[in-house]
Amino acid sequence: MEGFLDFNSRVFMAPMAGITDCPWRTILAECGGGNLISEMAAVNAIQRKNPKSYQIANVKNEPYPVVVQLVGNSPELFADAAQLVAELGAKSIDINMGCPVKKIVNNNSGSALMKDLSLASQIIKATVKATPLKVSVKFRKGWDMEHANAVDFAKMCEDSGASYITVHGRTRAQGYSGSADWDIIRDVKQAVKIPVIGNGDIDSPQKAEQMMQYSGVDGVMVGRAMLGNPWLLDRIDRHLKGLVAKPEPTVLQIRDMLLKHINLLINYYGERGGIAISRKFVGWYVRSLYEAKKFREQYTKLSTLPEVQQLINEYFVKVAV
Ligand SMILES: Cc1cc2nc3c(=O)[nH]c(=O)nc-3n(C[C@H](O)[C@H](O)[C@H](O)COP(=O)(O)O)c2cc1C
Fold this sequence. Notes:
The chain is of the alpha/beta class and 321 residues long.
């Protein structure tokens, strides 16, 4: 089983604000296996040339394909942003119509667009018209249980020109709680001809295979389970392709990956910013290791690279014995 459209893999990294940045993609690209995506970038902020949003959207210097995700509520601004991200190196454009965060939905963006199919359609059409790149849409089961309109929404995306869609099997009201509804993902798959990617609760190669068999989706998207486990997408990809899995990483390989990740964060955000951002990643890498809580508490107090390197080396020597 190979990929679909022009993707080499049926496994997709889930976009996650504050996480799927250039350093994380560099790590994932090295581990292999999945299609890579940006954090969401707001179309109005891109237009204002906001430096942070511009940095998110700028993937020109990355030596692997990156889907860039856009969020907003204005067809005109989406059209402008589509042209800009094409110049900034995007492989294709994903439109965020699933974000549940208050600040986003109060701005009539993200999952709020699931309540306004007419505006959602105008946004997709305007983006498709503005760029030769593929345009995909990521959305949820619906706004809430009473408005679980993912099937109608999927048909609207198809009719508006989306190349493929991703469905997260939770409503906006659920946020990230409860479990993802794979039935709605199956219903969406049956309702449209364009490729469908299923998303929600995949944390192993077996679970990915189960979702594909259960719902018939063309691909799977993995979010939270890859945190601290950048090897997961490759394991899933190999499993779906019937290839032999690489061995699980050793404790020392985890250490090396963590140190590499911190160095990448520092190169990208500077020493202070990079180390601040690294604190959450460190927690995920050591989650299941010896005295992780104590190590995390010590790590949080550090602010320079030599201190960080020393603590990590000392900690992993203890863990490895
Ligand atoms: C911290 C965090 C940030 C997220 N940011 C985004 C985002 O920017 N765009 C988006 O479409 N989805 C975002 N999501 C949703 C994920 O892409 C994914 O749909 C969700 O986590 C369910 O997949 P999972 O069960 O594999 O984690 C975010 C999720 C989390 C936990």
